[in-house]
Amino acid sequence: MKFVISSSSLLSLLSTTGKVISSKNTLPILDYFLLELKEGVLKVTASDLETTLVGTLTPDSVESEGVIAAPAKLMLDSLKEFSEQPLTIEADDSTWEIKISWKTGTSTIPGSNGLSYPALPELGADKTDIMFDVDTLVSGINKTLFATADDELRPVMNGVFFNMDEKGYTFVATDAHKLVKHTCECAGEATTSFILPKKPANLLRSVLLKEDEAIAVSFDSKNVLFKLKSHTLICRLIEGNYPNYNAVIPAANPNKVIVDRVELLNGIKRVAVCSNQATNLIKMEIADNVISLTAQDLDFSVSANENISCSYDGEPITIGFKSTFLVEILSNIETPSVVVELADSTRAGVFKPIYDQKQPCSTLMLLMPMMINA
């Protein structure tokens, strides 16, 4: 194998695909990139067995084709030191040595036989094919990913739930404390669903930013494949039944607060400094168009409070929330104003963005309250 390629283009491709590689791989070969040069196209594969990302790039020129496994860390560390320039990369089929040549020097890196690299999983004949709009997919992952759990006992909550039906697409994530439901209305298809794990969802989000065309998605009961312009992501799905999230969303919360999102977010951050480090509890007292935020830590004799003006329609209410969850939720809403719908101090609060115009997608964020000690 011998070809000439731009140093920055190759570094960009290896950096993107290299995000798949785990720091603790079960197989030594998984610490390598699989480089395949065929029909004038360089294909780079990285895998951790559960998730595989394949990226493609067209070299400037090709002298000979071939397959080799290249050590990921060494390749990345070497390429990071180059300014933009053409590199000649040559792999020896007998010794598996990789030689990188540039205008003023050369380096040699030990490679490995590419034939020992794990093969891509195949989707079954019963697979389902769907086309996703890029913006729909990006917003669905962006809005929900922060609410996924790290729960070994309930693995179904460790990913983003994709639900497709005739009304459109719904993306859901929850960790039992907070829940996000992002719905996009569009011409849907037959009802079907899958749970995408957190790691591939993060990877997908980073590669989707460079896409502008519809994304082809294929999945069966075990794996899902996302086909992009220059990348292919295939990963194992989380198997199991997702919780009935609609059952925990309150049907009617009579008390409604409309407030400036940034003002509320900054107020919570200021007051949270004095909250108890174990609970991060912030108490919200809402009445007479004012939100009174209070936090205290009796162990260290510290406390803080702040009043924020709002538009409030409802009975006076006092409710407690975990400040870190409040910050996460408000940080993941992009509108200037937010509406908070409440029932009482024991039932979940619902946070919704307020848009000036009707949107094709809607987002609902739910947060469970904390007990307030009298």
Which features does this protein show?
DNA Polymerase III, Chain A, domain 2; eight-stranded antiparallel sheet; elongated; alpha+beta; 17% helix; nine-stranded antiparallel sheet; 374 residues
Tell me what you see in this structure.
17% of the residues lie in helices and 43% in strands. With 374 residues, the chain is an alpha+beta fold. It folds into three domains: 2-116, DNA Polymerase III, Chain A, domain 2 (Roll), CATH 3.10.150.10; 128-246, DNA Polymerase III, subunit A, domain 2 (DNA Polymerase III, Chain A, domain 2, Roll), CATH 3.10.150.10; 249-367, DNA Polymerase III, subunit A, domain 2 (DNA Polymerase III, Chain A, domain 2, Roll). The strands form four sheets. It has a nine-stranded antiparallel beta sheet with strand order 14-11-12-13-26-25-24-18-22. α1 packs antiparallel against α2 (72-79), α3 packs across α4 (198-208) and α5 runs antiparallel to α6. The radius of gyration is 25 Å and the shape is elongated. The model has no long low-confidence stretch (mean pLDDT 92).
